Amino acid sequence: MLHIKNIDEGLKVFKALGSEVRVQIVKLLLKNHAMNMNELAGSLGITNGALTSHIKKLEESGIVNVTQEYSGHGNQKICRVDVDKILIEMETEEQAEEQNIYEANIPVGHYSNFDVYPTCGLSDTNAVIGVVDDSRYFAHPDHVNAKILWFTKGYVEYLIPNLLPTSQKVDQITISMEISSEAPGVNNDWPSDISFLLNDVEIGTWTSPGDFGDVRGLLTPDWWFPNWNQYGHLKMIVINKKGTFIDGLQISGVNIQQFNFNYRSTIRLKMMVREDARHVGGFTLFGSGFGNYNQDIQVRIKYSPM
């Protein structure tokens, strides 16, 4: 998901999609999953030189990812669509400034509780932490350095820092993270039902389509194993007075008022794959230094006087 937080921030995206040729490029890539420059130019009936300028604009906007791949015929540039959704917030900066907002970044390794089952593991950007498929290492002191973690079923739980000013209540919580399934090896067609809970109340479930390993993640370290998880989808969860939403689509009627969160509250976020889920396809959480998005778990809380 490409999250555009205001109109000005989205100018590159709007310009990139303001061309019939570039829209056609996106359609071709979505249909064929990936194409090299020669294939694209031939399908569009334009020269490689003309195509290069279009691809550059799509790449700069974050819509298309271009990678160099090596074959028996030399190097070739492979193009892929790099987003599954584009979410645009229409709120102006002036409107945002009028609201009280608290933001926090939670590193992947800073979970407060866990119960996970193999296949499982965690790693920092330099090496795997402990031994793969031994869940005991989730309790190792080095787990706080983790930048990626994965498991087949179970959960990890995080404390959301609550440093709201005195006498304030929570009106909305927004959480974003890069996640995917967890398959033995990798499998882009490996659905997994991932549930999200606040203080043990389930606010909704998202089904991850797969465990993505067709290309290396843009940030994934060079030493990372090619048959392991490479990247995920950036998902944004919003819970407000209207209900709970993922990427703008409502997934449940659970609303923020049911929790009565205020400046004194302990707020716990749990991400879980239930043993009895329809799709027990595991869970992978990518942090900064892994995947396609250089972020950990980002939390944004809107608040107002009690």
Structure description:
There is one protein chain. This protein is of the alpha+beta class and 306 residues long. Helix content is 15%, strand content 38%. The chain contains 5 helices and 19 strands. The strands form 4 sheets. Strands 6, 8, 9, 11, 14, 15, 16, 18 and 19 form a 9-stranded antiparallel β-sheet that branches. Strands 7-10-17-12-13 form a 5-stranded antiparallel β-sheet, with no helix packed on it. Helix 3 packs across helix 4. The protein is globular. The relative contact order is 0.18.
**Which radius of gyration do the C-alpha atoms yield?**
21 Å
How far is the N terminus from the C terminus?
34 Å
Per the principal axes of the C-alpha atoms, what is the gross shape?
globular
Helical proportion? 10-25%
H-E string: EHHEHHEEEHEEEEEEEEEEEEEE
Q: What does the main sheet amount to?
A: 9 strands, antiparallel
What's the mean pLDDT score?
Answer: 92
* Class by alpha and beta content: alpha+beta
- As a percent range, the share of strand residues is 35-45%
Number of E strands: 19
Brief descriptors of the model:
single chain; 306 residues; alpha+beta; 9-stranded antiparallel beta sheet; 5-stranded antiparallel beta sheet; 19 strands; 15% helix; globular
Quick summary of this structure?
The protein is α+β, with helices and mostly antiparallel strands and 306 residues long. 15% of the residues lie in helices and 38% in strands.
Q: Which SSEs are present, and which pair or pack?
A:
Layout: E1 2-4, H1 11-16, H2 20-32, E2 35-36, H3 37-44, H4 48-60, E3 64-71, E4 74-81, E5 86-88, H5 93-98, E6 100-106, E7 113-117, E8 121-123, E9 148-151, E10 153-160, E11 168-180, E12 192-198, E13 201-208, E14 233-240, E15 243-246, E16 249-252, E17 267-273, E18 283-286, E19 297-305
Parallel strand pairs: 1-5
Antiparallel strand pairs: 2-4, 3-4, 6-19, 7-10, 8-9, 9-18, 10-17, 11-14, 11-18, 11-19, 12-13, 12-17, 14-15, 15-16
Helix pairs in contact: 3-4
